[in-house]
Amino acid sequence: MTLSPSRSLIAAIALSATAFPALAQEVNVYSSRHYDTDDALYQEFTNRTGITVNRIEAKADELIARMQAEGDNSPADVLLTVDVGRASRAEEAGVLQAFSSDVIDARIPPHLRDPDNMWFGVSQRARIIFYAKDRVENPPRTYEELADPKWKDTICIRSGSNIYNLSLLAGLIDVHGEEAAREWAKGVLANMARPPQGGDTDQLRGIVSGECDIAVSNQYYYLRGFEGEVEGLTSGLDNLGFIWPNQGDRGAHVNLSTAAKAAHAPNSDEADKLLEFFTSDFAQAHFAGQNNEYPAVSGVPLDEDTARMGIFIPDTQTSTAVYGDNAAKAQAIFNEIGWN
Ligand SMILES: [Fe+2]
């Protein structure tokens, strides 16, 4: 179906060595999103444009530091990160440049891109509420309800330094203001079944093991339990219920995987083409499907596993850009109240 990495590499070398050495086009992607299926995505772009894609994969903060160290000589053209909070860190670090395009403006709704055009979403993930069906009859239906004292000693949620929680609280700061957001965080902290520990999967495992009745996690961690055997999770999926939060008002908190143009982008035109390609139906289905996320472009079909959870109302009133804007305030609140 697709070229294996070694064959595509050989093809790329053959093209640059023999065909049009002076005209060989390429684009350099720094990515903190990496999946086995990435080769198919980039091969499709090469098939459509003739542009070869070179990739460097590492954690977002490492890539940002690398781009800073490389400075004007950075070969980076495009940066892919997970979570708007990290895209904002890249913006603050000065390693991005504004990039606007009619294609992107038409394809990506305004709340899923930066108002200053420094990044845009390529896929959406929802941070939602899970519960033990056999122990919780009326689970919380909103993020706000998680702070209700009736849930004392029941909730599992990870650390306050985690970017997913920082973005969640940053969104609540935008919706309710800083004071109310602080009270909410205090309420959730008081309701925790245990001190924050582990990643999102560990919160779901906490329900399976009986340690937690309620957990907060991104939706795709739950779906991974169906796709393959996830220790401590797959065996307990029957008893795991989920709630799309705030379906009666603003909708569920969504975060993004983001794409951005690097500040110095030596292959500027190629970068523009790749960024626009990321909003194509092909790339959208790919980005969403590889991690059981939702496409950023509406109308792109869900992949089979993601569709297992059905559709939901996302919060489209809160701009995802506030996650970066309010990140420092959110971290200050978590630190102050001791949600470590
Ligand atoms: Fe994740």
UniProtKB/TrEMBL annotation:
Which superkingdom heads the taxonomic lineage of this protein's source?
Bacteria
Similarity comment: Belongs to the bacterial solute-binding protein 1 family.
| Keywords, sorted A to Z | Iron, Metal-binding, Signal
> Where would one find the signal peptide in this protein?
1-24
User: Which PANTHER family does the record cross-reference, listed alphabetically?
Assistant: IRON-UTILIZATION PERIPLASMIC PROTEIN, THIAMINE-BINDING PERIPLASMIC PROTEIN-RELATED
A Pfam family recorded for this sequence: SBP_bac_6
* InterPro entries hit by this protein: Ferric-bd
Protein species of origin: Roseovarius litoreus
Task: Identify this protein by name.
Answer: Iron(III) transport system substrate-binding protein
Molecular-function GO term, any one: metal ion binding
Binding sites annotated in the UniProt record for Fe cation:
H34, Y220, Y221
Q: Name one GO cellular component term.
A: outer membrane-bounded periplasmic space
Coiled coil feature spans: none
